[in-house]
Write a structure and sequence with these properties.
Elements lengths: L3 E5 L8 H14 L3 E6 L2 H4 L22 H8 L6 H11 L2 E6 L2 H9 L5 E3 L7 H8 L5 E4 L5 H13 L5 E6 L14 H9 L3 E5 L5 H8 L4 E5 L17 H18 L11 H5 L3 E4 L14 E4 L10 H4 L3 E2 L14 E2 L4
Helix pairs in contact: 1-4, 1-10, 6-7, 9-10
Length: about 350
């Protein structure tokens, strides 16, 4: 599978190391290329306040009225788990990496030799953090949700200015779940042409349609939140894929990649019979030596055993070199232009 399929665990471990390990294994079995976690502490994200500014809007579909601190406390992946998670992923043969949310998180991930980094949508404006990540020279995947083009410009410039050329941008709508009419896959073309970088999709919709369509449009990365069972609940459960759904997405991506194929034009192996059955010029009644080729004794019919139909007007009036039976393919070696 050429497209990188990332299973985002986020807070779906529900505070259980065993569940987090099970998620990594389930993602591997479902066909994911990599699993991603998030590296932060509640106190590195916000303050433990319950004043209106530090509460999520009451009308938010998932987390309305919850304090930012409480949400991050519930969803964070404890730092003491990280080494176990990285070791386990290595043992079962799946790549693991993370989204760091401050410099201390980057330092932890560097100690674990993370293979790449993810910049979360809401961190696209944190240029000092982005520069710090870029200095590692590791590949970076950056989501673009809730970001203006000028903010994305600054992000790209920050990464490239540190000599890091390995940047992929993910189209993303930071709505959970994302309504289908707010995905706007056409924006992938804008990102690709504006920045001349690989693009992908961080998909928060319900179902796999948007992800599969993004692959058909050339996405190099698809990121989906992942959970064992949505009935377990959790902050991201409603827009996360279960193992069967992730496996279906993986299989769909492989099918799309196969169907995209190559752009050079050639007859395909399985077209051989169709090629044989194309129309050609065939003698439609018994003819005799010296008789002229005419539309009364030659027609364009299937299969393709004679001259191509484009030669019909050219050979009208030629003469037959011998007697021929009905069904004989008309070829240049059985007719002559003499005596026309």
């Amino acid at each position: 599978m050429k497209t990188q399929l990332i299973a985002e665990i986020s807070g779906n471990h529900l505070g259980s190391l065993e569940r987090c390990l099970a998620l990594i294994e389930a993602a591997k079995l479902a066909g994911a290329s990599a699993v991603k976690i998030q590296t932060y502490k509640p106190e590195t994200m916000t303050l433990p306040l319950r004043t209106p500014d530090f509460l999520i809007s009451k009308d938010h579909e998932l987390w309305g009225g919850q304090s930012l601190f409480d949400l991050y406390k519930e969803a964070h992946t404890p730092w003491e788990w990280h080494e176990n998670l990285f070791d386990f992923a290595s043992q079962i043969g799946i790549q693991i990496f993370s989204s760091p949310f401050d410099k201390s998180a980057v330092d932890l991930l560097e100690d674990l030799n993370t293979p790449l980094y993810k910049i979360a949508s809401l961190e696209t404006g944190d240029i000092p953090l982005i520069r710090y990540i870029a200095k590692t020279k590791k590949p970076i995947i950056a989501s673009t949700g809730a970001s203006t083009l000028s903010e994305i410009d600054e992000l790209v410039e920050a990464v490239l200015s540190e000599g890091n050329k390995n940047l992929t941008l993910l189209l993303c709508t930071s709505a959970y779940p994302t309504p289908t009419d707010q995905v706007h896959l056409m924006r992938m073309d804008l990102l690709k042409s504006r920045y001349e970088l690989p693009v992908g999709l961080s998909d928060h919709t319900l179902g796999n349609t948007a992800s599969l369509a993004a692959v058909a449009k050339g996405a190099s990365v698809i990121e989906r939140h992942f959970i064992i069972d949505r009935q377990q609940g959790g902050p991201d459960s409603s827009f996360s894929l279960e193992p069967g759904e992730l496996a279906a997405l993986s299989a769909g991506i492989i099918e799309i990649e196969l169907s995209l194929g190559i752009n050079n034009w050639e007859i395909q192996p399985n077209e051989s019979e169709s090629r044989r059955l194309r129309r050609s010029l065939i003698i439609t009644k018994k003819v005799f030596k010296g008789e002229k080729v005419s539309i009364e004794n030659v027609k364009s019919l299937r299969p393709g055993i004679g001259l191509q139909p484009k030669f019909l007007e050219e050979i009208i009036g030629y003469t037959y070199n011998e007697d021929f039976e009905i069904g004989t393919p008309l070829t240049f070696d059985i007719i002559s232009k003499e005596n026309t």
